[in-house]
Amino acid sequence: MSVPHNTDKKADSSSRTELWHKSVFEEDMDVTDFKAGLGDDRRWKFQGPWLARMTEGKFIEYLDKKVRPKRAQFRALLKEKLADDITTSQNRAAKETGKEAPAKIEAKDISEEQFTDYLRSLRNDRVTLYALVSKFLDLAPLGQPVGIIQTFWSNRDSLASDSPYGKSGPPPSHPSAGISYLRTSSFMENHPVYGPQGKRTPALARVVYPKAGPAPPKLGVGGFVADAPPGDNEFNFRTMTRARISSNKTMLNGIMHLDTTTFGGAKAYVEATTANVDPSGKVVLQLRETSAEAQVVARESKGLTEIYHDGKTKSYTRTAPKTTSQPSARVSDETRWNRVADEILDEPSRS
Q1: Which residue among 23, 39, 165, 221 is the one 20 to 30 A from 294 at the CA level?
Q2: Which ranges are annotated Polar residues under compositional bias (predicted)?
Q3: Beta bridge partners of 207
């Protein structure tokens, strides 16, 4: 189907509004190694699990086997961070007062009282705590909040990264799933006879599940099940629009009810625009309605119809219109006119 694999807009935790789909093969998306110092971690592969996807039993097991044994190591990391924060604060104060910078604070110089107060402050500062735990355990980052809560996250050095998998979780494999390696659909197919095509070759889809309430009908395309193209078309027929019935579209069989009369089920041509892999590993296709010309070309390539022939084209010669059928009508009219004239001119008979 020649479908580019892109990131899921719904799963993208970015606060920016992106009008176009972004390929999973872009340099800032196709990343597996963590680079220290970069606040924007857009990796798709992490050593730790996606916590929201785990069952309760798996989560308890993860806490017992992976989290609790690393408490001492994490506390040592927090002490080093606290020492760095105190050193940075002292250097800033010395610079503002024009004094010499004091000696660097080491982790061993941190007292238990200072460390206890720091732990208490971290428990109240969930943003910083989540970021530290995420980096330490190599967990997929959380999505950034939206609205008024986002203002509290805006000036944080430990801000959760702008990851496209922050809300839905990272995929179990590469985002392309090895199905397609196209970065974009901005290319034009060149037909050997008709030349460059305005639309790509459509794929034949089968109606596998009719429309059920607000849920759209399901189509089988290339081994995948996808939602029918949205809009006023043969898959999503809007019969009532201001008490008017659309007359330029026909309903495809099997959309409103299961088609048991058509051999093999109802089929129609559609065009696959983009694809992405959700966190569960499901390939999600985005379909749209194709043009009538593209359908005819696709049917001709399969031998189902013929619109092109290499025979000689007969020349068109304009001929004069035939008038052989008119005299009889004119004779009849003239005869009647003569009779009318004779009747008028004749003298009245004498009684």
Answers
A1: 23
A2: 314-329
A3: 219
